[in-house]
Design goal:
The protein is of the alpha+beta class. The chain has one domain (about 5-300, about 390-415): Uncharacterised protein PF07063, DUF1338 (2,3-Dihydroxybiphenyl 1,2-Dioxygenase, domain 1, Roll). The protein contains 21 helices and 14 strands. It has helices spanning about 10-25, 30-45, 50-55, 60-65, 75-90, 115-120, 140-150, 160-170, 175-190, 200-210, 210-215, 235-240, 305-320, 325-335, 340-345, 360, 365-370, 375-380, 395-405, 420-425, 435-450; strands spanning about 5, 70-75, 95-100, 105-115, 125-130, 175, 195-200, 225-230, 265-270, 270-280, 285-290, 295-300, 350-355, 380-385. The strands form five sheets. The protein has a five-stranded mixed beta sheet with strand order 3-4-5-2-8. Strand 10 (about 270-280) and strand 11 (about 285-290) form a beta hairpin. Helix 5 (about 75-90) crosses helix 20. It starts with a strand and ends with a helix. Bound molecules: 2-oxoadipic acid and nickel (II) ion. 2-oxoadipic acid binds near residues 71, 73, 128, 392 and 401.
Amino acid sequence: MMSNFASPDEIRTLLSSAMSDMYRKEVPQYGALLELVKEVNGEVLAADHDLKCAMTRAGEIDRLDVERHGAIRLGTAEELATIRRLFAVMGMHPVGYYDLSGAGTPVHATAFRPIDDASLRRNPFRVFTSLLRLDLIEDEALRARAEHLLRRRAIFTPRTLVLIDLSERQGGLAQPEAEEFVCEALETFRWHRKSPVDHETYQALHDAHRLIADVVCFKGPHINHLTPRTLDIDAVQRRMPAKGISPKEVIEGPPRRQCPILLRQTSFKALEEPIEFVAAEGEASVSTHTARFGEIEQRGVALTPEGRRVYDTLLARFLASPPKPYDEALELAFAAFPDDVGTLHAQGLAYFRYEPTTQGKAAPRDAVEGQPLEKLIAAGFLRLAPIIYEDFLPVSAAGIFQSNLGSAPRQSYDVASSRVAFEAALGASVHDEFKLYAETEAASLRDALAELGR
Ligand code: OOG
Ligand code: NI
């Protein structure tokens, strides 16, 4: 049967762009942030010709303007399982397991994102998706109340569910179905000013943990931020105040580097927004809630398990007692981490794509045949290009949660990490991000060597 289905890549792009438009209307500061990021990215690319060429070769220039990640928080296993099916329609799959309970946040999470190279190139839209761990509410009556409220809500429109089913049965959606799907699915992520609960219940859940109230007291999992990718996070951070945006004090993640690694992020404070709670005799009582915030990110090369181990060790050591000034001290703490492509590659700390150079393609057969990889690189026949990190960092995510919840770091929950329970709720296992990067690297090596005629 000939397929005339809309491609999942196209559906994802439609939805992420619709979501961006919706969020821009809901949170005006988001629009200001996008302008600032665009301005800085333009300046960086104009000033750094090599970076521009490298990003063009890697197909990253085209995706830069549409590249976003968002986050939602879900309340039940059923919601998580259905959101997995919803994201699958758009070619987004669960990658990685993040346990944030150790950081005092009663959730665990995964990131839905495209996993193959061509789709990532087209639009790498990612949604960090947390599941509330109700088992961490100590008060039994309160936990039962939360469970009851969650059971009662329906976060998907009936038509969304029909279209997900249809897509699974047919193996895709025709163009008009895809467009309808995007409109319907968008409803799940919308902000609701009216809460279906009374203020007293809200307050009780809020006192147990602000995050619990944010999930349980709302009709759906409002998208709580949409993050554009910048090529110079320090510059954007510096210029935020002039645009009326106040960022949090420090940038999460690794320090600024010649060869950027992983992911650096900073956010600005959540908005205080009016909410109408249910009151006696159908009247509404208006109070406020903070949930939605702004964030920017800069992405660098993905690290191998060994590189990640070194990163985690250095960061943990630094965060145990972060000296001031933070930025310089962090740079110093990472002095031992190699900061050039050659060493990162030679020591197996990061993932790279192999690109045959013009010189390599013109080289005589015996100059490439049987030569070890390092020789081909040293001879300039193969060039290394960083494979960009497409995922998240648990320590950074915990910092982001904490700063936008406005709370001081809490005591960590003393519970076992629960990946098995998470995957049972999800109805699938999560992809291993290291495996995905390693496969991309291996495939690029195969192609490069074939092109060199080896
Ligand atoms: C998600 C916070 C995590 C990130 O970029 O690490 C996150 C949330 O607050 O729901 O988005
Ligand atoms: Ni984020």
